[in-house]
Amino acid sequence: MRILALNGSHRGEAGCTQWLLDKLAEGAVAAGAEFETVVLAKQKITPCSGCETCHTSQHYLRCIYEEEDDIKAIFEKMKTADLLIYATPVYIFTISGLMKTFLDRFNSTAGSKGLRLTKSGLFFGSIDEAIYSKPFVVLTCCGNVEPETVRNIISYFKTFSKFLDAPIVGTLVRKSVGMLEFDKEEPQQRKPVVNEVVAAYIQAGKELATQGRIRTGTEKKANRHILGVPFLDFLMRFRLFKKMAIKRAKN
């Protein structure tokens, strides 16, 4: 199993996104997989200009920037991977601009000639299945606890999956990520719930290596709240609870 992670954090290797990926890598490598992370912040990625030259007969499926930046090399890595991980923090309620800039460059690999029907029954043009029709995991993180914060990212990749015939084999949503970052260098000082989340990430990596997907139970443990408030998902439905939480935080 060869797993390739694409880290879309502007903070690169210094961010929480990379730290979470490292935990997945720890489990995957222990289970015998190859695990590589492409840190997009360290790559030269020219934004797609929408010139559509890649859809002309003279330059078909070849981007005008392909010899000038690192996209072609990243695509080659994607071709050799068995499973992909798209990892991005939340940036104003959606994927980071860096991740979007990267994904925009897929335009040069998708054909505008002809029409096809995706496995989910959608009309679309031809695609390079070797690049992005791979099973993939969505990993996103943010400081907020509201489910609404990550909704656009989850929705985006569900649509991505349908059009590109790429099955989602795991969705890792790490809210309150600042609590992980604060404790990340001292495992023995972490709260038990934080250690349980870390262990779930390592287990998720093992499952990706051996089963090609993250089990529902493991995903649930990895995504659990770490604030230590019982029944938080239920309580978050009530405005009164939120008002009380704000009042307590101010005191």
Which strand-content bin applies to the residues? 5-15%
Low-confidence stretches: none
CATH class: Alpha Beta
Q: How many strands appear in the DSSP assignment?
A: 7
Number of domains: 1
The global form is globular
Q: Quickly count the helices.
A: 10
**CATH homologous superfamily caption:** Flavodoxin domain
What is the distance, rounded to the nearest whole angstrom, between the alpha carbons of the first and last residues?
Answer: 51 Å
Radius of gyration: 20 Å
Q: Helical amount among residues, as a percent range? A: 40-55%
Instruction: Label the CATH architecture.
Output: 3-Layer(aba) Sandwich
- CATH topology title: Rossmann fold
The whole-number mean of residue pLDDT values reads 89
| Biggest sheet features | 5 strands, parallel
Pfam family, one: FMN_red
GO molecular function, one term: oxidoreductase activity
Domain NADPH-dependent FMN reductase-like: 1-116
InterPro entries: Flavoprotein-like_sf (IPR029039), FMN_Rdtase-like_dom (IPR005025), ISF_SsuE-like (IPR051796)
Q: Would you mind describing this structure in some detail?
A:
By secondary structure, the chain is of the alpha/beta class. The protein has one domain: Rossmann fold, CATH 3.40.50.360. The protein contains 10 helices and 7 strands. The protein has helices at residues 16-30, 71-80, 97-104, 129-132, 151-164, 177-183, 192-211, 216-222, 232-235, 239-250; strands at 2-7, 34-39, 83-89, 116-117, 123-124, 136-141, 168-174. The protein has a 5-stranded parallel sheet, with helices on both faces. Strands 4-5 form a two-stranded antiparallel sheet. Strand 1, helix 1 (16-30) and strand 2 (34-39) form a beta-alpha-beta unit. Helix 7 packs antiparallel against helix 8 (216-222). The longest helix has 20 residues, at 192-211. The radius of gyration is 20 Å and the shape is globular. The chain starts with a strand and ends with a helix. The mean pLDDT is 89.
